[in-house]
Amino acid sequence: MMDQLKKVIEKYVAIFKVQYQTKAAYFSTLLSETPIIALRLWILSQFYYATYQTHGMTEYKGLTIQALIWSLMFIQAFEGGSFPSISSVIDEEVKSGSIAYTINRPYSYILFQYVGYLGRTIPSLIINLTGGAITAWILVGGLPATWWSILLGVFLMYLGYTLNFFIEMSIGLLSFWLEDTESIAWLYQKAVLLLGGYFLPLSMFPDTARTVAEWLPFGALYYGPAQLIVNFSLPALQHFIFVQLLWLIITGAIAFYIFNRGMKHVSVQGG
Amino acid sequence: MSNPIIQVCNLHKTFNVKLKGGGFLAGLQSLFNPEYRTIVAVENITFDVQPGEMLAFIGPNGAGKSTTIKMLIGIMHPTRGSIKVLGLDPQKDRTSLAYKTGTVFGQKSQLLFHLPAIDSFNLFAKIYELNTVGYKQRLNYLVEAFEIKPYLKIPVRKLSLGERMRCELVAALLHKPEIIFLDEPTIGLDVIAKQQVRDVIKYLNEQEKVTVFLTSHDAGDIETLTKRTIVINHGTIVYDDTTQRLKKEYLTHKVVDLVFEETADSFTFEGGTILERNKHRVKIEVDANPGSIERLIAYAFERFTVLDITIMDEPLEHIIATMYMEHRS
After folding, report:
1. Extended strands (E) in B171-267
2. Rounded CA gap, A164 and B214, in Å?
3. Closest to A11 (Cβ–Cβ): which among B18, B73, B126?
4. Given A2, B105, B164, B183, which is the most exposed site by the fewest CB atoms within 10 A?
5. DSSP 8-state code for residue B93
């Protein structure tokens, strides 16, 4: 029994490792995201410096410039780590017909995609965080966080990645029915940019919009973890964990449902 | 006769294909008022395969070969009919069956494109839960048998098609499958690479007693490898008998393509039918027996300076068209 469990764990660890190696094999491609994050942070820092100075503020809605830029850095680094999107990976597998191989192996297809997604995410995340942290430190100084807030933020980041996985997986699996899922994936990515605190923290939204946005899954992805790192509070931790778990249950159930329905509908392309 | 390893009974598969006209308006119309056509990919086919058999399952493009394989391994669901592979229902027991079967789709790769083949093999060893010692022994054996040692550490994207195909076969055999499904394993390969792949398939059937379910477009694959052939066309079986009979009754001609230095105007060989003739080239159909080909070659070399010569099988499509007509009548 234990031996069998060990083999199953080793199987998924191997999938994780090989996807990590594949992504890490192209170091220069990994580095390419860093200057973009640095440029975005510089532009955003100029914008927020000017706004804060114009209104003579040192803090707005609980966020200092320092905390704000660091939180934007975390959101951009986390979000940038999740490329290529799992929806595009599945869409491509269905279109090319290579799903004939990936689906026909002795493992759970969803778990296979999940550990592969985490394996691909780690190298990008490390590079993005390193480049982003150096940029933020140059722009606004050190990270205003405690070890506890960082630890909890990292845990919520992991849940955020899992939530993103289930949403993108559900979109990708729609390719069993639809000719193209790119348009749905595009809408999702834009919703993350607008409602995920990518440029403007949700705390700065008008009150009603803020309440709605904080209960949507987009803010639960990376905004929540980033906020907790730079501006920790127990009520915020409880709120973000609750929203993440709620959406994880909903989107996880949807992903498994679509997969089970889709398996009866799958039409593997080509000879 | 032992129990069949594959049992297929009245297998039927239809697809709904969305129709779309050209242009923007037609695209818009298909979005709001989609029109579908039902395609019958496989129509009530029934057959058995015995353990250790090497079976050719052939047919033209769109005949239903690949669809049948995908239903046999459980990744597609039949519209109706029943399948048993190694006593299991592929659709219900897909994961259990995956431990016992191997697949190679000639037009797709299962190897990690950017990493060396050895990384894919190590990954598959974990996926199929092979123990370390057993895996190492198996890998060494296959590496030697398939002569792939020089390619193990080269990224897959840099391998030639023939080299990659041998690695694909190794990947499919690591877990000692009882059945291997080969879907066009020689497609796109040159003559030498084709022969290497055929040798490997023959070897694993003879030495390891693996049941081979082979689809191919290439009459040469079938002639050299299999004892039994099933021909499928428009989703129905039009021939299920020995390959020997198929050869005797249908693979009766070869096509020889000759290129001369001189003009081909005076080429008048009487032992064959000229299919095509242009200034320096003649394409001629002759009997498949070696005597006819020898006579043709002797004639050509006596009278002309031969620059190039190619001997081809009669296209499988012609043979299948003949069978189909006979089947219908």
Report:
1. 179-183, 211-215, 228-233, 236-242, 253-260
2. 41
3. B126
4. A2
5. S
Residue B192 confidence (pLDDT) above 90 = no
Check CB contact of B76 with chain A, cutoff 8 Å.
Answer: yes
Q: Do A78 and A157 form a contact (C-beta atoms < 8 A)? A: yes
Verify that B198 and B303 share a domain, yes or no: no
Residues B243 and B291 in one domain: no
Place of tokens 């994880």: A248
Q: Distance between the two ends of chain A, CA-based, in angstroms?
A: 40
Looking at the structure, do residues B262 and B245 belong to the same domain, yes or no? no
Could you tell me if B94 lies within 8 Å of chain A, comparing CB atoms? yes
pLDDT in tens, B286-307: 888 878 888 999 999 999 999 9
Q: Verify that B136 and B105 share a domain, yes or no.
A: yes
Classify the phi-psi angles of B215: left when phi > 0, otherwise alpha if psi is within -120 to 50, otherwise beta: beta
B18, A179: Cβ pair inside 8 Å? yes
pLDDT in tens, A163-196: 999 999 999 999 988 878 999 999 999 999 999 9
Question: What is the reported pLDDT for A269?
Answer: 56
Is any Cβ of chain B less than 8 angstroms from the Cβ of A100? Answer: yes
Segment B16-42 mean pLDDT: 79
Is A263 within 8 Å of B110 when comparing Cβ atoms? Answer: no
The ipTM of this complex is 0.86
What gap in Å lies between CA B25 and CA B22, rounded to an integer?
A: 8
How many CB atoms are located within 10 Å of the residue B63 CB? 24
User: Is there a contact between A267 and B76 if contact means CB atoms under 8 Å apart?
Assistant: yes
Give the residue among B36, B46, B47, B55 at the shortest CA–CA distance from B228. B55
Same domain, B64 and B197: yes
Which residue range forms the structural domain that includes residue B224?
Answer: 6-249
Q: How far is B165 from chain A (nearest CA, A)?
A: 15
pLDDT at A1 over 80: no
| CB pair distance less than 8 Å for A25 and B115 | yes
User: Highest-confidence range of B7-11, B203-207, B246-250, by mean pLDDT?
Assistant: B7-11
For residue B235, give the 3-state DSSP assignment: coil
Q: How many residues does chain A have?
A: 271
Residue B41 included in any domain:
yes
Contact assessment for residue A255 and residue A232, using Cβ atoms and an 8 Å cutoff? no
- Residues B195 and B87 reside in one and the same domain: yes
Please tell me which of the candidates B112, B126, B127 has its beta carbon nearest to residue A22. Answer: B112
Residue B319, in any domain of the structure:
no
Residues of A in contact with B77 (CB under 8 A): 263-264, 266
A26 touching B, CB under 8 A? Answer: yes
Q: What are B56's two structure tokens?
A: 């050719």
Q: Across the interface, do A26 and B114 touch by the CB < 8 Å criterion?
A: yes
Q: In this structure, what are the phi and psi dihedrals at residue A14, rounded to the nearest 5 degrees?
A: -65, -40
- Count: domains in chain B: 2
B329 within a domain of the structure (yes/no): no
Chain B residue nearest residue A20, CA to CA: B115
